[in-house]
Specification:
The protein has about 800 residues and is of the alpha+beta class. It has 26 helices and 28 strands. The strands form 5 sheets. Strands 15-27-26-25-16-23-24 form a 7-stranded mixed β-sheet, sandwiched between helices. Strands 18-19-20-21-22-17-28 form a 7-stranded mixed β-sheet, sandwiched between helices. Helix 9 packs parallel to helix 26. The chain starts with a helix and ends with a strand.
Length: about 800
């Protein structure tokens, strides 16, 4: 066994191409696990490898069978389109070298997917493919030059010696092409025969071998049964066309579906880490630990989550937001793994590595999606092997039928059948289109968690939105302040903010944001003995450092929590600041009206959805008046408020019972049952815990327009898949009869096979251009900001209480 493979048995190397997971059935459990175990062998591992030597769905099934036969391998998924495999294995039973050796015994090779060596190996494979194509092209041109006289010569123009000389010259020129350019096909075919299986390379290699053997026999024995004609020109043209198609297909897949791998390999292989003496040394990224200080140079990606300690720069966070606009990152600001340092060298204190980073969660989602097989692709996989067996039988029957009239022609008819019926286009039709669409969405801030969701989304006719964090922004804004006599608005704001700073509730954050904009008195108040009743409010003792006000016991929260009467009939959420007196009674000091900001693009997106024939509904757990206000602003006719999670699910199921195909758009935080119950679902917002999300799509950007554009791209993707499948089926239905009756020569069969696969990939490549354009520009969506006094914040005085 190779030393490189044995090196992978070192537990310290496992993080280079995988992550620990707690469940063999959950591909995202590794990302959910925020810590690497002290003993790496104590739980399952989820590893990803890049495969070489595979060309079709039958190869993918063979590798899956080989991996699953290894004791300790709990799950294996192989994608023919991406040539990657996911392996879930138990370190207590097996090590990576064992299941990698199983792949090698099956006739393929595997290497770590996140390793720089894998990328280098892929480049070398591309170069070898280019050289094989160039040799085939050169040999084809030379052979055609020698074959041309036989096509144009009149009877008697060519002597027998001259014709035999041209045959020998063609044989000599064809030989290096057969040995070098056709070598991988013969190697793969011999491997299949040895292991008693079939793949798409077997009929192709048989066609090449039969053509060369028949032509060689005609060259060495012109008077024999095969001496009537030689087919070097057909062979060289067929091989050249086939290699042209495969090389172009390889390039196109690297540029389209390969976009997923480009994102997954975004982290640098090494980084400069500060040593004990203050100097910097370059170490492997996987060796970083929390607490290390690293130096990131301009143009490099941040290898871990952290905080800038030295330097100021701008970062490209397109992977996390879908927006390519650089973001300022001064000293003290946080940076995320996978984003790029654009401007200047900075030193970063590492605060999160490996599975702790959001980048790791994104990669886990993308890896999981890239290895999924949509329903149509699964169907193609199931018929691949039976279809190849049928191809071999059809070729034998065609040869038997034509043999009595002309043995040489009979074998060439069999070759044409073998070549023309190869189901490459059929196996590529669905996965290439789906993965190309997934790569396009990833570049724009939408992660595809479930490839099957693209097919489901294309048929959606109803979209259900959650309100908070989806139609409205994550935060709230202060609309107005109502104060008791003797109190100024900025004074009560700073007093309330002193308590609110201790809470992460959205209402508390809104009060703090407004206080920062309204005044600079935040340091005036000191808080002691603070207690928070979750979802209700805060209680604390507050001291005035200036001595103007005595010590007070204050309550901040709902009217019930503050012990005062609620004001009914208001759309805004009311937060009350009250003082609790010695006798247990409370007196109200101020009341704050908080409102949610509707996303400025929401009415525009709702209108475009309606124009596309999609009904829009709003389901929310908020008060009915607030829900109706947001629905009216967004232009949504169907709205329900005060819904529990069970109520939302019941409303969703009622729509589905009525024959609706429903997409649910939520914030992904508390809508798990509803997201899982919809035909297809979106988790919206950057705060989504990716590894726990139940959604089919995760929107990392900050625009609702991405939901609409994803739907339009899904419809386009399904059209492309259908076009590919119809083309593959129609091509075989037309060409197989022509090959059987002897009307399609081998070179034309090779051209048709190459063009069919190339057309499928080119058609799918159209999905990589960009997201579908919308009728007009997306409205600007300003960030949530605190309001200032005076101005947009209105102030009123409370009636005496």
């Amino acid at each position: 066994m190779q030393p490189t493979v044995l090196l992978l048995d070192d537990p310290q190397e496992w993080l280079a191409f995988g992550r620990p997971c707690t469940s063999a059935g959950n591909p995202l459990a590794a990302a959910a696990d925020t810590s690497t175990p002290a003993d790496p062998t104590s739980q399952f591992w989820d590893s990803h490898v890049v495969l070489e030597g595979m060309h079709c769905a039958a190869c993918a099934l063979t590798i899956e069978d080989a991996l699953r036969a290894v004791p300790g391998v709990l799950q294996a998924d192989v994608s023919a389109a991406t040539r990657r495999a996911r392996v879930v294995w138990n370190p207590g039973q097996v090590r990576p070298s064992a299941w990698i050796e199983a792949v090698q015994k099956a006739g393929y090779s595997a290497m770590p997917a996140m390793d720089a060596f894998a990328r280098g190996q892929r480049l070398r494979e591309n170069r070898r493919a280019l050289w094989r194509w160039l040799v085939a092209g050169f040999c084809m041109m030379q052979v055609m030059m020698y074959a041309w006289p036989a096509y144009v010569a009149q009877p008697g123009d060519l002597t027998g010696e001259m014709e035999q000389l041209l045959r020998w010259a063609s044989w000599v020129i064809t030989l290096p092409m057969v040995v070098f350019s056709c070598g991988p096909f013969f190697t793969s075919a011999l491997r299949d025969i040895r292991l008693r299986r079939v793949s798409m390379d077997l009929p192709v290699a048989l066609g090449m071998a039969i053509t060369f053997v028949v032509s060689t026999a005609g060259t060495f024995d012109p008077a024999g049964i095969f001496g009537k004609e030689v087919y070097y020109d057909s062979l060289t043209m067929f091989v050249f066309f086939l290699l042209t198609g495969r090389w172009l297909e390889l390039r196109l897949r690297d540029r389209t579906a390969g976009a997923l791998e480009a994102v997954m390999n975004r982290l640098p292989d090494s980084v400069e880490r500060r040593t004990a003496d203050g100097s910097f040394e370059r170490v492997a990224t996987r060796r970083l630990m929390v607490g290390d200080t690293i130096r990131v140079l301009p143009g490099e990606a941040f290898p871990a989550d952290g905080r800038i300690t030295v330097g100021n720069t701008h970062a490209d966070e397109a992977l996390l937001t879908g927006e390519s606009t650089p973001v300022a990152r001064p000293v003290g600001s946080t940076v995320t793994a996978g984003s790029y340092n654009l401007q200047a060298p900075v030193e970063v204190l590492v605060e999160g590595t490996g599975g702790r980073t959001r980048f790791a969660q994104i990669v886990a989602l993308m890896e999981s999606a890239s290895l999924q097989k949509p329903r149509l692709a699964q169907l193609a996989d199931r018929i691949a092997r039976p279809f190849l067996v049928a191809v071999l039988l059809a070729a034998v029957l065609a040869a038997v039928y034509w043999w009595p009239s002309d043995p040489g022609h009979a074998l060439m008819v069999a070759v044409a059948v073998l070549i023309v019926t190869c189901p490459c286009a059929l196996s590529l039709a669905t996965p290439v289109a789906m993965l190309t669409a997934a790569g396009t969405l990833a570049r724009h801030g939408v992660l595809v968690r479930n490839l099957q969701g693209l097919e489901a989304l294309a048929g959606v006719d109803t979209v259900v939105f959650d309100k908070t964090g989806t139609l409205t922004r994550d935060g709230m804004a202060l609309q107005s302040v109502h104060t008791a006599p003797g109190w100024a608005a900025d004074e009560v704001l700073s007093l309330a903010a002193a308590l609110a700073r201790q809470s992460m509730h959205p209402a508390s954050r809104a009060v703090v944001a407004a206080s920062l904009s309204a005044s600079a008195e935040g340091a005036r108040w000191t808080v002691a003995q603070l207690h928070e009743d979750a979802g209700l409010g805060l209680v604390a003792t507050v001291n005035d450092t200036t001595g103007v006000h005595p010590q007070r016991l204050l309550r901040l929260g709902s009217a019930v929590h503050a012990g005062v009467a609620a004001h009914e009939g208001r759309d805004a959420l009311q937060v009350v600041l009250a003082e609790q007196l010695a006798d247990g009674q409370t007196t109200e000091l101020a009341r704050f009206d908080l409102v949610e900001h509707l996303r400025s693009e929401a009415p525009w997106v709702v209108n475009l959805l309606s124009q596309e024939g999609v009904a829009v509904h709003l389901l929310s757990g908020d008060r009915m008046r607030a829900v109706q206000r947001v629905a009216a602003q967004a232009g949504i006719a169907h709205a329900q408020g005060e819904c529990t999670s069970q109520g939302k699910l019941a409303a969703l199921q009622a729509l589905q019972a009525g024959g609706r195909r429903v997409a649910m758009v939520g914030d992904g935080l508390n809508d798990g049952p509803v997201l899982a119950g919809a035909h297809v679902s979106f988790a919206f917002g950057r705060a989504v815990p990716l590894a726990q999300s139940q959604a089919d799509f995760v929107v990392l950007g900050d625009s609702l327009a991405l939901v609409l554009q994803t739907m339009l791209l899904a419809r386009r993707t399904l059209r492309v898949v259908r076009q590919n499948l119809w083309w593959a089926a129609g091509y075989n239905a037309l060409c197989v009869p022509l090959a059987v009756v002897g009307w399609m020569p081998a070179w034309l069969a090779g051209l048709g096979m190459a063009l069919s696969s190339l057309l499928v990939v080119l058609n799918a490549a159209r999905l990589a251009r960009d997201l579908p354009a919308l009728p007009c520009a997306v409205p600007t969506s300003p960030a949530v900001q605190g309001v200032s006094l005076p101005g947009s914040l209105s102030k009123t005085t409370l009636e005496p209480v």
